[in-house]
Design brief:
two-stranded antiparallel ribbon, single chain, Thiolase_C, 12 strands, Thiolase_N, Acetyl-CoA C-acyltransferase, Thiolase_CS, acyltransferase, alpha+beta, 35% helix
Length: 381
């Protein structure tokens, strides 16, 4: 009989903006902070952790050579505790959670930490492509030489779904407004790990711009096409952060005196057109709902990563989900998208909403470079 996997705790650092307060922290040390927080909050003996499954997208420079393993050592955990670093582009830490839950359900792990990190200040986005061509000639030939540029893909999605510049900017301003309200209501307080740097303690996401409005965004220049609709204000922010979740079985949780907060219900991953790579969350959502035996209306909250405004907007149109359930605490447009950490951050944000509103089911999904997407359903306990 398949075992259950449950989430005991979810923590994250505040999200730092590019060259902001977290830029001076090595990603290994940033990862170690959330690992330490998991131990401090739950009281587990780190020696009993079977593995640390860690997402990180740009694995070179300060993020090379297995960040997950070195995070274990930086946290002071016993040397026998392993760590692995994985990538599924922007969904890396969501995939880390999925892999960890799957291993627990299969009986290969009893206690595992999953999450991820990205220091985009120290290891800039796209730097892994600086000296090579990752797609290969056969892939480029198959798709007519298209370079699989996410910004251009966002323009194509906006065009296909007929979104105007004003609609995109209104959605983006709404993300800032919702994130500001969530911060003011203390929605993130319980799961943010304060980071202290040079005597200053940081506890809030740095990228939020409270004065953002659709009118202020209207003055920004398009980023990818001279007459385009995508710009810095309706795209996710370049950011730094780390996040982690503790996953185990209900039986092991009881043995350790821990109280699970949610059950891993279902997960799915799918591919989509790599030219329109940002549309993957739509079929991924359909797939995970089929697997879960649920309808879209059964889900109380959705977290759809705001890589670009057209992504959640197109998802909303095609799924028919209730708009008020989508990203109710804001998203990456407002507070940032630290690639390898974002999946775990979305999970922590979704759990906060589910617990506050007593919502039975939550679903998160992320578009990913190359045209893949993860979708995960969790159930409140």
């Amino acid at each position: 009989m398949m075992r259950e996997a449950v989430i005991v705790d979810a923590v994250r650092t505040p999200i730092g903006k590019r060259n902001g307060f977290l830029s001076g922290v090595h990603p290994v040390d940033l990862s170690a902070q959330v690992l330490g927080a998991i131990v401090n909050r739950t009281g587990i003996d780190p020696a009993t952790v079977d593995d640390v499954v860690w997402g990180c997208v740009t694995q070179l420079g300060d993020q090379s050579s297995n960040v997950g393993r070195f995070a274990v050592l930086a946290a002071g955990w016993p040397e026998h505790v392993p760590g692995v670093t994985i990538t599924r582009a922007c969904g890396s830490s969501q995939q880390a959670v999925d892999f960890a839950a799957h291993a627990v359900m299969a009986g290969q792990y009893d206690l595992v930490v999953a999450g991820g990190v990205e220091s985009m200040s120290r290891v800039p986005i796209g730097s892994s492509r600086a000296t090579g061509q990752p797609y290969g000639p056969a892939v480029l030939q198959r798709y007519g030489g298209f370079g699989f540029h996410q910004g251009v893909s966002a323009e194509l999605v906006a065009e296909r779904w007929g979104f105007s510049r004003q609609q995109l900017d209104e959605f983006s301003a709404g993300s800032h407004a919702k994130a500001a309200a969530a911060i003011d209501e203390g929605m993130f307080t319980d799961h943010i790990v304060p980071v202290e740097i040079d005597g200053t303690k940081f506890t809030e996401d740095e990228g939020l711009r409270r004065a953002t409005s659709a009118e202020s965004l209207a003055g920004l220049k398009p980023s990818f096409k001279p007459d385009g609709v995508i710009h810095a204000g309706n795209a996710s922010q370049i950011s730094d952060a780390a996040a982690a979740l503790l996953i185990t079985t209900p039986e092991r949780a009881r043995e350790l005196g821990l109280t699970p907060v949610a059950r891993y219900h279902s997960g799915a991953v799918t591919g989509a057109d790599p030219v329109l790579m940002l549309t993957g969350p739509i079929p991924a959502t359909e797939k995970v709902l089929r697997r879960a035996g649920l309808r879209i209306d059964d889900i109380g909250v959705f977290e759809v990563n705001e890589a670009f405004a057209p992504v959640p907007m197109a998802w909303l149109v095609d799924t028919g989900a209730e708009p008020g359930r989508l990203n109710p605490l804001g998203g990456a447009i407002a507070v940032g998208h630290p690639l390898g950490a974002s999946g775990a951050i979305l999970m922590s944000r979704m759990l906060a909403r589910m617990r506050r509103e007593n919502l039975q089911y939550g679903l998160q999904t992320m578009c990913e470079g190359g045209g893949t997407a993860n979708a995960t359903v969790i159930e409140l306990i």
